[in-house]
Amino acid sequence: MTAATRFDTGRRRVIAVCMAAGTTTLLDNSVLNIAIPVLRSSLNASATEVQWIVAGYSLSFGLTLVPGGRLGDVHGRKMFFLAGLATFTAVGVVAAVATHPWTVIAARLLQGAGAGLVNSQVIGTIQDAFSGQDRARALGLYAVTSGVAAALGPPLGGTLIAAAGPDLGWRLTLLLTVPFGLATLVLAVRYLPHPGRTPATPAWIRSASSWSGRWPWW
């Protein structure tokens, strides 16, 4: 295997992990929206509690993005990616088995923080591993994948609720991303670069002004 082919494979694996992370975290946020009415009825949640359940994820997600990115810059992205995704996946199970609205609220806040930490590392990893047109393409793939996941959430949630009934259905919507999270963790452990190591292109290729047109990475 040539050096160019090896690094090309490394880049494919990196973007695959990033796309999987985007799918997992964005699907979780959108799939719950369709389940809010039955969740409210099942847990006898108040209007305020429902608002926290809906908004808590996005709030903590947004608040974590900037400090998460800075932590990844200083201490390495892989560790924070894994920590955020493990937190996201574990508290998803907590939310799914909850019997009180505030348990769901706390879990959603933690999930949002974990997702924000993950996605800040995704953006940083793409910035580190790609440059020029390749970086734009990688970011585009990540954005498209996340958008598709967000669009698939409501129909998937509705299908689960219709098939399993309201009381079990909303819990299954919260468990839906757990297998995705676990699979992404395995891929990230194996394929994300360690601190100070990225699947960079060899120097002679990086220095060529038109290398991206001659050597597509997808």
From TrEMBL:
Keyword set, alphabetical order: Antibiotic resistance, Membrane, Transmembrane, Transmembrane helix
Residues annotated as transmembrane: 14-38, 50-68, 80-99, 105-126, 138-162, 168-189
UniProt subcellular location: Cell membrane
Gene Ontology MF terms in the entry: transmembrane transporter activity
PANTHER family given in the database record: ACTINORHODIN TRANSPORTER-RELATED, MAJOR FACILITATOR SUPERFAMILY MULTIDRUG TRANSPORTER MFSC
Pfam families reported in the protein's UniProt record: MFS_1
The keyword Transmembrane helix is annotated on this UniProt entry: yes
GO BP: any one term: response to antibiotic
Main location: membrane
UniProt domain Major facilitator superfamily (MFS) profile: residue ranges: 14-218
InterPro entries: MFS, MFS_dom, MFS_trans_sf
Name of this protein: Major facilitator superfamily (MFS) profile domain-containing protein
Topological relation to the membrane, as annotated: Multi-pass membrane protein
Highest rank taxon of the organism: Bacteria
